[in-house]
Design a protein that fits this description.
Distance between the termini: 59 Å
Number of strands: 12
Shape: elongated
Strand content: 5-15%
Number of helices: 24
Strand order of the largest sheet: 1-4
Length: about 525
């Protein structure tokens, strides 16, 4: 029963957190956004004392339940391990702990956080690692599926679904996510929770606390017959069946050993188990391994008989793949001007200072608190946020306006950030926060290059910071060019995004290291 409860709770947490990274409508965060805030590292960075204290108390009571239920990366490894276990049962073996590696990785993580060497810390943070996997690998598949439904609905004059763009926001972040997915999948497929018990800094910290847990899986040696079935099903490889000992610093309280023990010799209890009886039957201990081997052989044989390919399934997947490809092509078609001419894509300008989201206060604050989980990038409805490719701010969000601009009424990124890197901000506060200022490039402006009137930047500026003035102040018939009032500009990027110049806009936003109120 405990194992079933744990699996059900883990499934709920894993599904909801994954959907937070997949949802492009922005509706789920209002209901399940708290699940991101109860992750240990984000809670520490946000100085959320209540959450940190609750997680520590939970660990002191029940061991590393956090790792098997709340942490999405831990549950992801359980899913990969379960898939590997379907082909080979009873495949784990006890292995000694590697404290030098575990505490070495923890020390490296802490040093990287203190020294603001964030790429190292971001690679080791478990919640952020899963966030990158979900946002870069799972989200495109989810959106392609949505586009397939939208394409099918459009054929029957239904608009219950709408197409969304699918594009790679950062090649570096995508590569990191793909590599993380591959490494963790292989490790979990072969050896279960190897990453959690050798690399993960959160697992090491909670492992130290869980040594003093009140309730633990305990072995009753008076009932144990020495079959070793518990050890061969322990994905944390922390049960030494020969000496009847469990390494509680590595145990993730998954309850698998309790479910597998046929002698009911393992219980999740508060009191220590009974000592071994002086008269233990030697014959029972000798017979147990042989009996277990027969059970393993029978299960393997049964599994081999059921491993038959299903042709109909392959046919279905082929058809589904063709439909998905068609929908993707339709969704990704180039936008055209009146159906006649292709509109050239804009290129990212070379900004001297990157633009950070409103609510981040300053580039330094964002760097200090952000773990690169990509939740804000996914939640941005205007496609303004994207992961940085620069070394010292790698995978942290920065803003660019080729696909949209930062609308003054939108505060999504500040609502979903669990670490305090982007503080909660109201629409009124955002409208008065200057994150950068617009800069006009005369050589790119269509007024100078094509000799035509424009004024697009001034018409769409939400703060009225851009005015059109005569190119020649002494000639009232001279063409109008934009003049930027930097004191009123908030750096929203509406002018840059809506400028018709290609491939570089004639007006772009230069970021500010520290935000200020205008």
């Amino acid at each position: 029963m405990l194992r079933k409860i744990r699996i059900a709770a883990a499934a709920v947490f894993f599904t909801m957190i994954t959907l937070l990274f997949l949802d492009f409508t922005g509706t789920l965060h209002a209901w399940f956004g708290w699940m991101a805030r109860v992750q240990l590292l984000p809670a520490v960075l946000a100085v959320n004392v209540a959450v940190v204290a609750a997680l520590l108390v939970l660990t002191l009571l029940f061991g590393r339940v956090y790792c098997s239920v709340i942490c999405p990366l831990g549950v992801f490894q359980d899913v990969a391990s379960w898939a590997g276990g379907r082909r080979r049962k009873n495949r784990f073996t006890y292995s000694r702990a590697l404290p030098w590696l575990r505490y070495g990785m923890l020390a490296l993580f802490v040093a990287a956080m203190v020294a603001h060497i964030k790429p190292v810390a971001e690679l080791l943070a478990p919640y952020s690692a899963y966030g990158r996997i979900a946002s870069n690998l799972f989200a495109p598949l989810y959106r392609w599926g949505n586009n397939l439904l939208a394409y099918a609905a459009e054929r029957i004059d239904s608009y219950a679904f709408y197409t969304v763009d699918v594009w790679v926001k950062s090649g570096v972040t995508f590569a990191v996510a793909a590599a993380t997915f591959a490494v963790l999948s292989v490790l979990a497929w072969r050896n279960g929770r190897t990453y959690c018990n050798t690399v993960c800094p959160v697992g090491t910290l909670l492992g130290f606390v869980s040594r003093f847990a009140v309730f633990k899986p305990r072995i009753d040696t008076s009932k144990c017959n020495g079959c070793g079935l518990c050890a061969r099903n322990c994905k944390a490889s922390c049960i030494d069946a020969k000496s009847h000992e469990i390494d509680y610093s590595r145990c993730v309280a998954c309850m698998d050993c309790i479910g597998k023990c046929r002698q009911h010799a393992i219980a999740f209890s508060r009191k220590p188990a009974a000592k071994p009886a002086s008269e233990t039957s030697a014959s029972a201990a000798a017979e147990a391994p042989a009996k277990t081997d027969r059970v393993v052989a029978a299960e393997s044989s049964s599994k081999a008989e059921r491993a038959v390919a299903d042709p109909s399934r392959r046919k279905f997947l082929t058809i589904a793949g063709v439909l998905a490809y068609t929908a993707t092509v339709k969704a990704q078609e180039k936008k055209v001007d009146g159906g006649l001419a292709l509109i050239e894509d804009k290129k990212v300008p070379d900004r001297a200072v990157p633009i950070t989201p409103p609510g981040s206060l300053a580039a330094r604050n964002l760097t200090a608190h952000c773990t690169g989980c990509q939740l804000c990038v996914v939640a941005c409805p205007n496609q303004v946020l994207r992961p940085s490719g620069k070394l010292m701010t790698l995978m942290q969000p920065e803003m660019s306006y080729e696909r949209g601009y930062c609308r003054p009424e939108c505060t999504k990124c500040s609502e979903v950030c669990p670490t305090g890197a982007i503080r909660p901000i109201t629409a009124a506060e955002k409208s008065a926060t200057q994150i950068g200022h617009a800069v006009w490039i005369a050589d790119n402006c269509v007024v100078n290059t094509d000799g035509v009137d424009c004024g697009n930047c001034a018409r769409h500026c939400p703060t009225g910071a851009i005015h059109m003035v005569h190119k020649d102040p002494d000639n009232p018939d001279s063409p109008l060019i934009p003049a930027v009032n930097e004191e009123r500009c908030i750096g929203c990027g509406a002018c840059e995004n809506l400028c018709p110049s290609r491939p570089f806009s004639a007006i772009y936003v230069e970021g500010h290291l520290r935000h200020r109120t205008v």
